[in-house]
Amino acid sequence: MRFILRIAAACAFWYAATVFGQQSATTPASAIPSTLTLSDALQLLSQRSPAILAEAQSIPVAKAQVEAAAKLANPILLANSESYPAFSSQPGSVLNNQELAGTVSQTIQTAGKRRKRTDVARQALLVAGSNLQNFQRRLAVELRQRYWAAALASAQAKLARLMLTQFDDTLRLNETRYQQGEVSGLERTRLQTERLRFWNDVQQSDLDLSNAKSALLELLAAPQDTQLDIADPLVTSVPLLPVQELTEEALANRPDLVAQQQTVEEQRREISYQKSLAIPDVTVAAGYKRNFGVDSPVLNIQVPLPIFNRNQGGIHAAEAQRERERRLLDKQRLQVEREVKQAADTLKTQQIRAQEISKIYVPESQKALDIAVQSYRLGSLDLLQLLDAERVYRDTQRTANQAYFDLRIAESSLEAAIGKESIQ
User: Fold this and answer.
1) Which domains does the chain have, with CATH numbers?
2) What separation in angstroms does the CA of 164 have from each of 251, 301, 367, 390, 393?
3) Which helix (H) or strand (E) holds 297?
4) What predicted TM-score, i.e. pTM, was given to this entire model?
5) Closest Cα partner for 258 from 342, 137, 175, 164?
6) How far is Cα 117 from Cα 155, in angstroms, rounded to an integer?
7) 5, 188, 304, 333: least buried by Cβ within 10 Å?
């Protein structure tokens, strides 16, 4: 058992050293690349996030508690002087006319109290490490959401500029035809007015992109004037594993579940420690005594009698707390299974939606727009029909971008649910 405890403690210390090694390696903080991938963003998050760096301080706090728990009680030095006739007219010798005693006492903890107390603190260190990993997992979920929001905004901005460029081509053609008397002034004015909608889309898309990048930079603790582009595309295809296999991975990898399991073990060790407190400690004192000129050794042993208080309350409280943590572990397992099932179902649905839109509706809307533009150039299609084709194409493309964004978010949710960096 002691060997296992030593191995567990060594793993915890190694994890703490790794965390602080990363912190020291990032001073000064790593720069934000101009083209940012999601993998780079996740790495920068662990290095730069003030929230993670603050949460990481729980590791040295827990290590300090281990150090404190392993310490022996300090010895007590006692010096005593009695019966010297200080107010007598002839008090006599200080050494020979009084009782002088000096003792050093030491409390000896019985029933392995110090070892058991240290075991509890070491287990708490493991819990702190797992809680830190879980905090990083939850913050990584938020980073993924902000990253893909920026990717969506970038795709929508590119679409808006493309639509404006295509519309301006049509506008120039219409102006030429107007100069040649082929179209009316009303149609010319209507087309010029319609440009406002496309121009407004560009302005709004640029604003959305700027805000999305700003939110991402905040999470990476980077200056707001940092210039970056999103590297990873929205389009993705994720192979899905069986839900049972995903659930087994989650039960093995989720740091919040590991932390709860470690908490149950911590409470088990706390019960053992509380039971050891029922056995009284022994205080041994040894020293020297001079009694009116006569020297003698002093030996004293104190043992409290556990008649009334045998730490029944502490033991019962620890047992109840362990049962509570065990019940919470059962609840946590059920929650993990539900989260995996829902995330897998959502991902499957979003895959079907994104593929259906991109394979059927996007090509059809592109085909319809191409025909409409060509027909308008040939004069066989009126302006309203052209504008309608452009609107349908724009809305279909935006819907496709949104569908892939939803797919990316579903992918990130499943990654978080199973406690892995990637499910690819």
Assistant:
1) 2-84+95-418 (1.20.1600.10)
2) 50, 94, 18, 10, 13
3) strand 294-302
4) 0.82
5) 137
6) 57
7) 304
Q: How far apart are CA 347 and CA 131, in angstroms?
A: 27
Name the DSSP class of 358.
Answer: I
- Condensed to tens digits (0 to 9), the pLDDT of residues 45-97 reads 999 999 999 999 999 999 999 999 999 999 999 998 888 787 777 777 777 88
> Given the structure tokens 């060509």, which residue do they identify?
374
Q: Are 216 and 40 in contact (CB under 8 A)?
A: no
What is the amino acid identity at position 83? S
Residue with tokens 């993924």: 144
CA 50 from chain centre, in angstroms, equals: 12
Taking CA atoms, 372 is separated from 50, 159, 387, 389, 406, in Å, by: 54, 18, 9, 7, 31
For residues 157 and 160, give the distance between their C-alpha atoms in angstroms, rounded to a whole number.
Answer: 5
Cα distances (Å, whole numbers) of residue 368 to 114, 364, 390: 80, 6, 9
Phi, psi of 100 (to 5 degrees): -115, 135
Strands 76-82 and 35-36: unpaired
* Tokens describing residue 416: 């978080």
- Report which of 139, 125, 325 is spatially closest to residue 221, judged by C-alpha positions: 139
C-alpha distances (whole Å) from 175 to each of 4, 117, 165, 168, 371 are: 83, 87, 15, 10, 21
Q: d(Cα 383, Cα 381) in Å, to the nearest integer? A: 7
**Pairing mode, strands 35-36 and 229-230:** parallel
- H or E element at residue 263: helix 255-276
Tens of pLDDT along 155-181?
999 999 999 998 888 888 888 878 887
Q: Which amino acid is at 365?
A: S
Residue 52 and residue 107 in contact, taking contact as beta carbons nearer than 8 Å: no
Residue 53, judged by CB atoms within 10 A of its CB (0-12, 13-18, 19+), counts as middle
Q: Look at residue 424 and tell me whether its pLDDT is greater than 80.
A: no
- Those residues whose C-beta lies under 8 Å from the C-beta of residue 203, and which sit 6 or more positions away, are none
- Paired tokens of 355: 């593929």
The answer to whether the CB of 8 falls within 8 A of the CB of 45 is no
| DSSP letter, residue 142 | H
Scan for tokens 């609840």, then name that residue.
331
The residues with which 287 forms a beta bridge, in sequence order, are: 103, 298
pLDDT, tens only, 278-287: 999 999 999 9
Q: Which residues contact 291 (CB under 8 A, 6 or more apart)?
A: 99, 100
